[in-house]
Specification:
Helix 4 packs parallel to helix 8. The chain is globular, with a radius of gyration of 18 Å. By secondary structure, the chain is α/β, with parallel strands linked by helices. Helix content is about 40%, strand content about 20%. The protein contains 8 helices and 11 strands. The strands form 3 sheets. Strands 2-1-3-4-5 form a 5-stranded parallel sheet, sandwiched between helices. The protein has a 4-stranded antiparallel sheet with strand order 6-7-8-9, with helices on one face.
């Protein structure tokens, strides 16, 4: 049974989400604010759902600290729906963003998709235990889903890993923001999705590159997209 943590200071929202997800067979834990959420995250939590506006610590700040503890998917479920809010959420390390009021069907679909991708990313769906990709000191072990540079492990979120893996398997191919979004998120692309892709590329570069302003691995092809050479 998958364990999901829902953090929201609204008791009614927490109860609605808990009942909905428990009816789908998930075990749901609750947190009443950002600090409470951070304290309850451990290796047993498979997915975290965060509100943005919470006492003691905002969802954005909580997300940053949770990312230091786990690579489990993080979904923001919030009434704040501006593009700038989504940008902040993805910059903090979240994997997805759903605005309130939300469709119950949409929430369940997002949760299932995030968990499915996460457990593929964690190595539940690999067959060749020796399969790896090496690019200028960067090594991707596809069997274990581990990434290292010059032998030093690089910790990525599952979205970041999937972007890197896709581009590494298709070196020199130029991926537009639309290509990446539809391939990784497996959802229709809209113009606003461009910011989502840009934030994840920026986060990925900050982890891979010694000088993110002059990237060694993920190059920008102006007006077209990104590629790994």
């Amino acid at each position: 049974m998958r364990n999901i943590l829902i953090a929201d200071d609204n008791n009614e929202i927490r109860e609605i989400v808990k009942v909905l997800l428990e009816s789908e067979g998930y075990n749901v834990l609750e947190a009443v604010d950002g600090e409470d959420a951070i304290s309850k995250v451990d290796e047993n939590i498979d997915l975290i759902i965060l509100d943005v506006v919470m006492p003691k610590k905002t969802g954005f700040k909580a997300c940053v600290e949770i990312r230091e503890k786990t690579s489990a998917p993080i979904l923001f479920l919030t009434a704040k729906s501006q593009d700038s809010d989504k940008y902040m959420a993805f910059s903090a390390g979240s994997d997805d963003y759903l605005s309130k009021p939300f469709s119950y069907t949409e929430l369940v679909s997002r949760v299932k998709a995030l968990l499915r991708r996460y457990y593929v990313y964690k190595g539940k769906d690999t067959s060749d235990l020796t399969d790896s990709i090496s690019i200028n000191g960067l090594k991707i072990n596809i069997a274990s889903n581990e990434v290292s540079i010059d032998g030093k492990e690089i910790v990525l979120t599952e979205i970041e890993y999937n972007i890197l893996l896709l581009m590494s398997k298709n070196r020199k191919k130029i991926f537009s923001a639309q290509n990446l979004y539809e391939s990784i998120w497996k959802e229709p692309y809209f113009y606003s999705c461009n910011n989502t892709v840009m934030v994840h590329i920026r986060n990925l570069r900050s982890k891979l590159e010694s000088d993110p302003q002059n990237p060694k691995y993920i190059k920008t092809v102006w007006g077209k997209g990104y590629r790994i050479e």
